[in-house]
């Protein structure tokens, strides 16, 4: 633990949250509302970007909108790296979460302003705020328990439910407001949700004890001034680059998206190169990192397809599904609630299955299962797209089935990847490895945004079938290399 607070201590009066420290309720609700705002905005983002100007949208081409969506998701996860550093060295997790929530709320309020520039300015603020909040609120949950506490995993499971509860409710509200009334009203609902999160976090701060109260490894004196100077220089350099692009007429959405995609990939390459060439890690640790590199590639490929649910599949839902129920045409974005509710239902079943199977199914094999299932979801999507050829509207149950297969794949890969990250981490980089796991999502989303551009120019059945079969082939390749990867893992299952 990073604090001196009593382990699993109950607050005065013995009040608990489902038998856990009362502080868990504060963090649970903060995360729930943050995810409400994130998934609520995300559910209508591409639909707003591609909607005609006459319908109060931006009228952006589908290919560009898909790339923007993918890059936005990538930046959210990429910023978890500097966000974790700021908490560890400067602010502490508690203040980082607070300021992150304030900046996120500000971003959503900016997006609620009915002008063309507001969406991009708002997304920039949300990215910066999420980088501060997302990694550090999980750290605070861990601070509530002793490292070996039997209630630690259960506490994280409850916290995880908050994530999916917010993700389930959000599209139902923002989707109705955005699609049926006004897009910016939907963005405003996301802003109000994050405001609720910040308010209850402030009101519940007395429950937090010492969790996240101070930086884990604070910078002091000259070191602090040097770090702040470097941050100022980097910020200034970014502003200069943007100014130069604007001066030469190159400051366009596509230019920024392409640059951010390149930055995401280069940061990842530099991160792995730094760890693998570090002479202070042992041979065994280096071998495990080589195994982790394989898993990282598999995970990035998984998210490349999976996170197109909010872009390519969302547009398909809007344009090519029959959403009429008893005379009411429900919003396309409502289908974005399918994934989280299936995760809530499926997560306990997946946990039971992996417990029963034990070490009989290795981590690489579980990743292979995730990739194959993800690929099969796109193969099924190709059939749905073929059924829609000619202008016929297809049943939304096609998408529900696609999401169900993807969720099964996620439950095979994502929780297992989190566990593998902690087990394969070199001792020196133990605290940074979770940021590296977030990078897998960032890379997948960034490249996925570029790949999704093809959905506008390729025939849809061809697009889905091509990338679906590619994911299945990669999954089968993971099966073939599973023994080699297990050897590299050096005794880690």
UniProtKB/TrEMBL annotation:
<comment type="similarity">
    <text>Belongs to the major facilitator superfamily. Proton-dependent oligopeptide transporter (POT/PTR) (TC 2.A.17) family.</text>
</comment>
<dbReference type="GO" id="GO:0035443">
    <property type="term" value="P:tripeptide transmembrane transport"/>
</dbReference>
<feature type="transmembrane region" description="Helical">
    <location>
        <begin position="334"/>
        <end position="355"/>
    </location>
</feature>
<dbReference type="GO" id="GO:0005886">
    <property type="term" value="C:plasma membrane"/>
</dbReference>
<dbReference type="GO" id="GO:0071916">
    <property type="term" value="F:dipeptide transmembrane transporter activity"/>
</dbReference>
<feature type="transmembrane region" description="Helical">
    <location>
        <begin position="257"/>
        <end position="277"/>
    </location>
</feature>
<feature type="transmembrane region" description="Helical">
    <location>
        <begin position="66"/>
        <end position="87"/>
    </location>
</feature>
<dbReference type="GO" id="GO:0042937">
    <property type="term" value="F:tripeptide transmembrane transporter activity"/>
</dbReference>
<dbReference type="InterPro" id="IPR018456">
    <property type="entry name" value="PTR2_symporter_CS"/>
</dbReference>
<feature type="transmembrane region" description="Helical">
    <location>
        <begin position="154"/>
        <end position="177"/>
    </location>
</feature>
<keyword id="KW-1133">Transmembrane helix</keyword>
<dbReference type="InterPro" id="IPR050171">
    <property type="entry name" value="MFS_Transporters"/>
</dbReference>
<dbReference type="InterPro" id="IPR005279">
    <property type="entry name" value="Dipep/tripep_permease"/>
</dbReference>
<feature type="transmembrane region" description="Helical">
    <location>
        <begin position="434"/>
        <end position="451"/>
    </location>
</feature>
<dbReference type="Pfam" id="PF00854">
    <property type="entry name" value="PTR2"/>
</dbReference>
<keyword id="KW-1003">Cell membrane</keyword>
<feature type="transmembrane region" description="Helical">
    <location>
        <begin position="395"/>
        <end position="413"/>
    </location>
</feature>
<keyword id="KW-0472">Membrane</keyword>
<feature type="transmembrane region" description="Helical">
    <location>
        <begin position="36"/>
        <end position="54"/>
    </location>
</feature>
<dbReference type="GO" id="GO:0015333">
    <property type="term" value="F:peptide:proton symporter activity"/>
</dbReference>
<feature type="transmembrane region" description="Helical">
    <location>
        <begin position="107"/>
        <end position="133"/>
    </location>
</feature>
<keyword id="KW-0812">Transmembrane</keyword>
<feature type="transmembrane region" description="Helical">
    <location>
        <begin position="231"/>
        <end position="251"/>
    </location>
</feature>
<protein>
    <submittedName>
        <fullName>POT family proton-dependent oligopeptide transporter</fullName>
    </submittedName>
</protein>
<feature type="domain" description="Major facilitator superfamily (MFS) profile">
    <location>
        <begin position="26"/>
        <end position="486"/>
    </location>
</feature>
<keyword id="KW-0813">Transport</keyword>
<feature type="transmembrane region" description="Helical">
    <location>
        <begin position="463"/>
        <end position="482"/>
    </location>
</feature>
<dbReference type="InterPro" id="IPR000109">
    <property type="entry name" value="POT_fam"/>
</dbReference>
<dbReference type="InterPro" id="IPR020846">
    <property type="entry name" value="MFS_dom"/>
</dbReference>
<dbReference type="InterPro" id="IPR036259">
    <property type="entry name" value="MFS_trans_sf"/>
</dbReference>
<feature type="transmembrane region" description="Helical">
    <location>
        <begin position="367"/>
        <end position="389"/>
    </location>
</feature>
<feature type="transmembrane region" description="Helical">
    <location>
        <begin position="183"/>
        <end position="204"/>
    </location>
</feature>
């Amino acid at each position: 633990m990073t604090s001196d607070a009593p382990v699993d201590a109950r607050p005065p009066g013995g009040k608990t949250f489902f038998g856990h420290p009362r502080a868990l309720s504060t963090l649970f609700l903060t995360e729930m509302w943050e995810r409400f705002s994130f998934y609520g905005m995300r559910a209508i983002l591409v639909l707003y970007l591609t909607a005609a100007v006459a319908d109060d949208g931006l009228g952006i081409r589908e290919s560009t909108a898909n790339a923007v969506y993918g890059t936005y998701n990538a930046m959210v996860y990429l910023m978890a790296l500097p966000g974790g550093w700021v908490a560890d060295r400067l602010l502490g997790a508690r203040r980082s979460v607070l300021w992150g929530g304030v900046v996120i709320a500000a971003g959503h309020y900016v997006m609620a302003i009915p002008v063309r520039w507001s969406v991009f300015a708002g997304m920039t603020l949300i990215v910066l705020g999420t980088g501060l909040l997302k990694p550090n609120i999980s750290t605070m949950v861990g601070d509530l328990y002793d490292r070996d506490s039997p209630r630690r995993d259960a506490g994280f499971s409850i916290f995880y439910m908050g994530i999916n509860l917010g993700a389930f409710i959000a599209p139902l509200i923002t989707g109705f407001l955005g699609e049926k009334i006004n897009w910016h009203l939907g963005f405003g609902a996301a802003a109000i949700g994050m405001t609720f999160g910040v308010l209850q976090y402030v009101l519940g701060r007395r429950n937090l004890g010492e969790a996240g109260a101070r930086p884990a490894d604070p910078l002091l004196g000259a070191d602090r001034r040097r770090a702040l100077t470097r941050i100022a220089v980097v910020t200034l350099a970014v502003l200069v680059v943007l100014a130069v692009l604007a001066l030469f007429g190159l400051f366009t959405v596509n230019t920024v998206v392409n640059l951010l995609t390149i930055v995401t990939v280069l940061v990842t390459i530099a991160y792995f190169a730094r760890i693998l060439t570090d002479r202070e890690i042992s041979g065994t640790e280096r071998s495990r990192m080589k195994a982790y590199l394989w898993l990282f590639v598999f995970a990035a490929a998984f998210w490349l397809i999976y996170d197109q649910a909010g872009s390519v599949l969302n547009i398909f839902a809007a344009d090519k599904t029959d959403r009429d129920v008893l005379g009411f045409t429900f919003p396309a974005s409502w289908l974005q609630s399918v994934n989280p509710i299936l995760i809530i239902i499926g997560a306990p079943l997946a946990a039971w299955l992996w417990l029963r199977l034990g070490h009989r199914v290795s981590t690489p094999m579980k990743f292979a299962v995730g990739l194959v299932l993800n690929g099969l979801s796109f193969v099924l999507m190709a059939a749905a797209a073929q059924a829609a050829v000619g202008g016929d509207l297809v049943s939304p149950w096609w998408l529900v089935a696609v999401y169900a297969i993807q969720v099964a794949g996620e439950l095979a890969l994502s929780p297992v990847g989190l566990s593998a990250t902690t087990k394969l981490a070199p001792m020196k980089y133990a605290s940074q490895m979770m940021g590296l796991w977030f990078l897998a999502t960032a890379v997948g989303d960034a490249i996925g945004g570029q790949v999704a551009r093809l959905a506008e120019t390729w025939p849809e059945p061809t697009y889905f079938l091509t990338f679906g079969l590619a994911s299945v082939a990669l999954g089968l390749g993971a099966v073939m290399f599973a023994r080699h990867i297990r050897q590299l893992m050096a005794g880690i299952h």
